[in-house]
Specification:
- The complex is a heterotrimer of chains A (485), B (95) and C (479).
- With 485 residues, chain A is of the alpha/beta class.
- Chain A has 15 helices and eleven strands.
- In chain A, 38% of the residues lie in helices and 13% in strands.
- In chain A, strands 1-3-2-4-6-5-10-11-9-7-8 form an eleven-stranded mixed beta sheet, with helices on both faces.
- In chain A, helix 5 packs parallel to helix 6, helix 7 runs antiparallel to helix 15 and helix 9 packs across helix 12.
- Chain A is globular and about 65 Å long.
- Chain B has 95 residues and is of the alpha+beta class.
- Chain B has a domain of 38 residues: Histone, subunit A, CATH 1.10.20.
- The radius of gyration of chain B is 23 Å and the shape is flat.
- In chain B, 35% of the residues are buried.
- Chain C folds into four domains: 284 residues, no CATH class; 58 residues; 49 residues; 60 residues, Arc Repressor Mutant, subunit A (Orthogonal Bundle), CATH 1.10.10.410.
- The longest helix of chain C is centred in the middle third of the chain and has 20 residues.
- Chain C has 479 residues and is of the alpha+beta class.
- The chains are: A alpha/beta (485), B alpha+beta (95), C alpha+beta (479).
- The interface between A and B is large, with 71 and 50 residues.
Amino acid sequence: MKFHDLTIQEIRQKLRSGVLTSVELTQACLARIKATDDRLNAFITVCEEEALAAAAVADQQLAAGDTGLLTGIPVAVKDIFNTLDIRTTCGSKILANYVSPYDATVVAKLRQQGAVIVGKLNMDEFAMGSSSENSAAGVVRNPWDTERVPGGSSGGSAAAVAAGQVVATLGTDTGGSVRQPASHCGVVGLKPTYGRVSRYGVVAYASSLDQVGPVAGNVEDCALMLGVVAGYDPADSTSVDCPVPDYLENLKDGVAGKKIGLPKEYFIAGLDPDIKRAVEAAIETYRQLGAEIVEVSLPHTDYSVACYYLIAMAEASSNLARYDGVRFGLRKDIGKGLTGMYQQTRTAGFGDEVKRRIMLGTYALSSGYYDAYYLKAQKVRTLIRHDFLAVFEQVDLLLTPVAPTPAFKIGEMVNDPLQMYLSDIFTVPINLAGTCGLSLPCGLSAGGLPIGLQLIGKPFAEADILQAAYAFEQATDWNARVPKL
Amino acid sequence: MKISEKDVEHVARLARLTLEPADLTIMTGQMDALLGYVEKLNELDTEGVEPMAHAVPMSNAFRDDEMKPPIGIERALQNAPAAAAGCFKVPKIIE
Amino acid sequence: MNSRYEVVIGLEVHVQLTTKTKIFCGCSTGFGQSPNSQTCPVCLGLPGALPVLNRQVVDDAIKAGLATNCQIAPDSIFARKNYFYPDLPKGYQISQFELPICEHGWLDIETEGSGKKRLGITRIHMEEDAGKLLHNEDNSSSVDLNRACTPLLEVVSEPDMRSSEEAIAYLKQLHQIVVYLGICDGNLEEGSFRCDANVSIRPWGQKELGTRSELKNLNSFRYIKQAIEYEVERQIDVIDAGEKVVQETRLFDPDAGVSRSMRGKEEAHDYRYFPDPDLLPLQVSADWVEQVRSSLPELSAAKLQRYQDEMGLPVYDAGVISADRQLAEYFEALVEQYNQPKICSNWVMGEVLGALKEKNLTIDQCPVSPELLAGILQRIDDNTISGKIAKTVFEEIWQNGKTADQVIEEKGLKQVTDTGEIEAIVAAVIAANPGQVAEYRAGKEKLMGFFVGQVMQASKGKANPGMANALLKKKLTEM
C-alpha cells in the first residue's frame, strides 16, 4: 500500500467506512518499513507490538464512531520526543538505553487524537546537524538517492514520509531541521512560530530556538498535523496562550491579492542553478495565481548563521549538562572519582559534533567572553527579528529557497563543520526571528533530487503559509513525484 | 589564533570532556575557525540594541502552588546507572 | 573589639520557603519523606522536562523584600548557574543573577556593643535548592532529590557588620521577619534558614576591604557566633605571622569549634550565568506590590513600638510578646476581649507561657483560648473569683476546655461576698486564736496577714479577701 496519493482525510474516510482497518494499515506500514529501512535507516526504534495493539484499539474506536483526527493513522516521531515506556535515544549513545517515564505533550496529543505511533525516527544526535549523519544509530539515507543525505536533523522524519513508511511524522526545527530535510526529501515540513507548539518533553537542544514541526506528504496533511499538536501548554512557560485556528478551514482560499516578498539577500551568487531555476519558476506560478510579487530586504541575513550558532551552542552547552551519568543514561566509571566519572561518561557518550557545540557554547558563555559572543549574538538576534517585523509591514509572506544546494553526498561535508553550518543560511533566520516557515517541493534538480521552496509567514500566521503552499501544490505536480525505492 | 590549545583544555574541563592530544589539536583548529567566522558580528554596531533572550516577547508564566502527584520512586530510578535504598549512587565525592 | 583590626562581616542567608510545592514543579516540599519519593521529570532534570514558576514564590519574595525595606524590581529574570555536582540534577541551578527581584534594602538592629545601627541588604533573589547527598561506607555517595527544586530566597547583606554580635542581631531579626511573614518555618537544624558568612579584617582606618573567607555550614546562631569569632582570631594570627589571608571557603566544624579550608578541593568556578531561555522574564507591577503590601502582617518591630506607645506595656513585656507572631496574635486577641493590656501581658507571660513550657507546647497548641482566658479575667474583675482562685480556674480550663463560668459553677468556686457568712468565719477564726488576737491588739499589726490567711483557708479560698480584711480589722478593733 502507498499513501502518496491519499491524504489523511481520505484515509480516515476509508477507515471510518470500514473499507480499511487500522490494523491492516499499520501492518502495511510495518511491512514497508521492513522492506525499505535497511536501505534508509530512518527508524531507530520500531515498536511493532505497541503499534498493532494501538491499531486494534483504534479499530474498536472507529467501529464505535470515534472521530479523533488521527484515529488509526500510523505516524512516527523523531527520537527526540519522550515516549512513555518506549526508548528515547535522541540519536545519542549517552541515551542508548533510556526509557522515558513520561510522554511529551505533543506525543500525548497524538495519542489523544487516536494516532498509532509505529516508532521513533533517526536524527542527528541531539538534533545537532544538517545531514542526519551524526547519529549513534548510523547515517540516514535519502530515499531519492541512498548515496546522499536526507538533510537534518530530522532526516528520519522526512525520509520516512518520502519513502511511504508512515503517513506523517513529527520533527523538530531549531535552525531548519524540519524544513531542510523536507526539502531534500521532497515532502512538506513546517516550522511553527516559536511558542505555537509545546516543547514539554522534547529533548532540548537550544531552548530559545527549538520548535516542534510536522512533516507530511502534502500540505493538507501538514495542516492537519499542526492542528493536532499546536496549542498552549501550561507545562511549557514559553508556549503562547492564543487560540489555534482550524488550519483546514481556509486552506483552499488561494493567494490572489496576496503580497509575496522576495528577500534579495536570499537570491545570491552561489545559489545552485537548479534551485534558482526551480524557485524562479515557483515565483512565476504564484504570479499566475494572482499574488503580487515584490522585492524586499532582510539586511542582516548575512549575520544569521554566526548569530544562530553562538546562541544555539551556548544554550546547548547548558542543556546538555544533565547528561552526567548520575540519574539516567550511559555511565563510564573506571574508579577515578566523581569528576572522572563525569568526564569519561560525557566523552564516551557524546559524538564529535555534539562535543564541538558544547565546547564552543561553553566558551561563548565563559567568564570574559560572554559579552563578546553570547550577548553580542543576542543583540544581533534583535536586529534580525526587526528585519522580519519590518518586512511584514509590507508583505503577507516571504518566498525563498530552503537550502543553497540539493542533498549532498554522505560524507561530503563531514570534515568541514563551518561549510555545513553555512548551508543553513536560509533557514536559521526564521528561528532567530521566532516566526514560522514551511518547505514544500517545487522541482527536481538535473540529477533528479528534490528541491524545496520556503514560505515564511508572520508570527502565528501558519494558516497564511499553508494556504499559499496549498495553492502552489494544486497548481503544480511536484508533490506527486515520489522516489523509486 | 582566537583560541589556544590551553584555552580549549580549560573549556573541556568546564564542560567535563576530555580530549586526547590529537583531538585537542583538531578541536582547537575547528573552534578557531568558527570563532574567526563569528567575528563578523562585530561589523555590526549594536550599541543600544536590547539583547533578545526569547523568540517571542512575553512575560510572567506561572503555576499555582498546587500539588501534583510525583512519578514515584520506581519511575524516578528506572534509568539509574546505579541505585540503592531509593537513592541514585555515585562515586564518593572526595572532600 | 580588637584594638588593631576592624572586623568586616557580610552575610548570605538562604531562606527555605514554606510553599506547598517546589519552585518549578508540583512536587511536595515536605521534609523527611523517603528518598526520591517527591520527584517528577522536572526536579529530576530528565531530558525534555521544563520549569514553570510557582507564583507563591514570587509573592513570598515580594513580602520578604517589603519587610526588609527593599525596592521591588519591576523587571527581573531567572538565570542558569552552570556547574556539575550530583545533587544538581540539570547541571545548572536556576537562580537570579542580573536583575534580582529585590534590591537596596536595610534592617535596623540594636546591640549592647554598638547601639542602634542600620545594616544594608544588597539583594534578595529567588532560586531552587539542590538535592541531598549522603555519604556511604562503601566509597560511594547517595543522591536524594526530594529537596531539589524547593524554593529558596537568598538574602545578601552589605558587608556592614563589625562584630559577631551585630551579625547575630541581624540574623535574629531577619529570622524573626521571615517567620513572622509566614514564608519560612525558621528551623535552623533542618536547614530552613542557612547562613554563610563572609569575614575579613582590616587595620582601623583602612578603606579597602581585607581578603575575605567564606564560612559555610553554620546551622545555629551559636555556631555562627563561634565560627565568626574563630575566623577573626585566625585571620589576626595569619597577619601577625606575616602571612596573607587567602580568599577561600571554610567549613565550620561545630564539634571541634574550628573551621577547615576547602581550598584546593574545589576548582576555580566559572558559572557561565545566562538568562534561562525556558523561563520568561518576570514583571511585577506596582499593583501587585501594593496587593502584597496590604496583605503583610504587622511586623514585630512595629508591634513592639505599638505595645509600648498605645497599650502602655513595659518594654520587657512588649519585647517578649512581640517576638513571636503567634504569641502576639494570642495577646492581641485577649486584649480585644479584655482591654487591660498590662493584666493581659502578666497572664500571657506568667500563666500561659509557664504552662506551655511545662507541657512543652507552643502557643498555637494552647488549650486555653484568648476567649476563655478573657472569661477568667472578667470574673476577677467583677469579684466573682479572686486572683488566686483564677489560677485554679485556669488549670481546670486547661484540662477540660470549659468556660470560666462553667468551672466556677461546677466546682463551687464563687467568691463568698455574703457579709454574714464571712462574719461567721471571722468570728470563728478570732475565737480559735486567742494568743494571736492578744498579740495583735498589743500592736503587732503584721498579724493581719495571718488572720486573713486563716479566713481564706477556712473558706477554701472563696472568701472575698478585701471583705475578709475589712471585717477582721473591724472585729479585732472592736474587741
